[in-house]
């Protein structure tokens, strides 16, 4: 049925400046022994880790720290963390960090109650059958929206792919979205995570599985990012701009119920094969993907143009839609995401390997991208992004 929708929504969210203060009180309702998962040091330097530890211990919660989750977290890291979780008899998992940390932590919570390796679930060899441990997501970036969705994107080094695991059991039991935790984010990382959030909002809005709910929150996210991403990049201590981006990231993450599209089809293998940061990979291909989708979601791209502040008065729907691409291109220029594939030393001979990566990891997104996806189309996008 064309009108049959499926939504997986966040269970509980606390949003706003200073909301981290509720961590101890809220966590104590979910468990008494927490595995606290962090990355490679930024939450130490910002003071967020010390604050979180103090709040948890002040509420009588025993904390086991799992540190060192890398960008684009690996199967090995997730498997190791789940073993620590079981060994220490943790009954709660908390991810404090960016999208990589949150994705790793939510999969660790699942593996604490389900057998096997994360690889088996990623490759479809096992199905998630049991709810994981209660999981709290605390984002320190505004990009992936992992705090509001059921997806974990993991790197499989053996297969050289980035591929998602998705299940309703993976939605966080609690998301604490405190914009003040993003104030120390450097301009480049602010730009890359912001463009990732924008791509979630745009691709979900024009998705063939879009629905009224995802359309509404996706379009709102687009507007917030267009207005406040440049401000956050240029003035990182602007808490109002940081709050807008935190909300936009959260909304766009939920909008991914409708699925992503060709920009993500290509960005994942670009990251897995060539080590290109996800937000940068998105920026490399997003405008070219949008151009090829214009004729398949013309009125929606006109909506996107208006949400990004373009004056579409008196224009045809097609002309207005083209302004959406122009607006995203200018936004990328303004925030410093201007590199091309050639700047990462890619050559056209690498394209066949990228296409193989698409087939192994993101081919399911063919179902949601507006334009029919062929190898020829993907090659055309890659060539135009050189």
From TrEMBL:
<protein>
    <submittedName>
        <fullName>Alcohol dehydrogenase</fullName>
    </submittedName>
</protein>
<dbReference type="InterPro" id="IPR001670">
    <property type="entry name" value="ADH_Fe/GldA"/>
</dbReference>
<dbReference type="Pfam" id="PF25137">
    <property type="entry name" value="ADH_Fe_C"/>
</dbReference>
<dbReference type="InterPro" id="IPR018211">
    <property type="entry name" value="ADH_Fe_CS"/>
</dbReference>
<dbReference type="InterPro" id="IPR056798">
    <property type="entry name" value="ADH_Fe_C"/>
</dbReference>
<dbReference type="InterPro" id="IPR039697">
    <property type="entry name" value="Alcohol_dehydrogenase_Fe"/>
</dbReference>
<comment type="similarity">
    <text>Belongs to the iron-containing alcohol dehydrogenase family.</text>
</comment>
<keyword id="KW-0520">NAD</keyword>
<keyword id="KW-0560">Oxidoreductase</keyword>
<dbReference type="GO" id="GO:0004022">
    <property type="term" value="F:alcohol dehydrogenase (NAD+) activity"/>
</dbReference>
<feature type="domain" description="Alcohol dehydrogenase iron-type/glycerol dehydrogenase GldA">
    <location>
        <begin position="10"/>
        <end position="179"/>
    </location>
</feature>
<feature type="domain" description="Fe-containing alcohol dehydrogenase-like C-terminal">
    <location>
        <begin position="190"/>
        <end position="386"/>
    </location>
</feature>
<dbReference type="Pfam" id="PF00465">
    <property type="entry name" value="Fe-ADH"/>
</dbReference>
<dbReference type="GO" id="GO:0046872">
    <property type="term" value="F:metal ion binding"/>
</dbReference>
């Amino acid at each position: 049925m064309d009108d049959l929708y499926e939504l997986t929504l966040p269970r509980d969210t606390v949003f706003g400046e200073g909301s981290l203060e509720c961590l101890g009180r809220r966590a104590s309702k979910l468990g008494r022994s927490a595995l606290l998962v962090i990355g490679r040091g930024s939450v130490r330097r910002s003071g967020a880790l010390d604050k979180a530890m103090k709040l948890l211990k002040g509420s009588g919660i025993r904390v086991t720290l799992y540190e060192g989750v890398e960008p684009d977290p690996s199967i090995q890291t997730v498997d190791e963390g789940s073993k620590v979780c079981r060994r220490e008899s943790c009954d709660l998992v908390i991810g404090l960090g960016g999208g990589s940390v949150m994705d790793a932590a939510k999969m660790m919570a699942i593996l604490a109650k389900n057998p096997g390796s994360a690889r088996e679930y990623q490759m479809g060899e096992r199905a998630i059958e049991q709810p994981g441990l209660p999981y709290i997501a605390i984002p320190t970036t505004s990009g992936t929206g992992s705090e509001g969705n059921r997806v974990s994107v993991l790197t499989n080094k053996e297969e050289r792919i980035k591929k998602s695991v998705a299940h309703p059991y993976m939605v966080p039991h609690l998301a604490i979205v405190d914009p003040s935790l993003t104030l120390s984010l450097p301009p480049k990382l602010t730009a890359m995570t912001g463009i990732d959030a924008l791509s979630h909002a745009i691709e979900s809005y024009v998705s063939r599985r879009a629905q009224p709910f995802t359309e509404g929150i996706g379009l709102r996210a687009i507007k917030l990012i267009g207005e406040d991403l440049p401000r956050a990049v240029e003035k990182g201590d602007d808490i109002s701009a940081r709050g807008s981006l935190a909300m936009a990231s959260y909304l766009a993450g939920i909008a991914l119920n409708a699925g992503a599209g060709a920009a993500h089809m290509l960005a994942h293998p670009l990251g897995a094969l060539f080590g290109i940061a996800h937000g940068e990979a998105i920026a490399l291909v997003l405008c070219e993907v949008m151009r090829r989708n214009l004729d398949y979601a013309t009125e929606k791209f006109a909506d996107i143009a208006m949400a990004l502040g373009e004056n579409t008065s008196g224009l045809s729907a097609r002309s207005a839609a083209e302004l959406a691409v122009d607006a995203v291109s200018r936004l990328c220029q303004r925030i410093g995401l201007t590199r091309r594939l050639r700047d990462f030393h890619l050559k056209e001979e690498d394209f066949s390997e990228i296409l193989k990566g698409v087939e192994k990891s993101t081919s399911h997104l063919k179902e949601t991208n507006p334009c029919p996806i062929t190898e020829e189309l993907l090659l055309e996008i890659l060539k135009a992004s050189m």
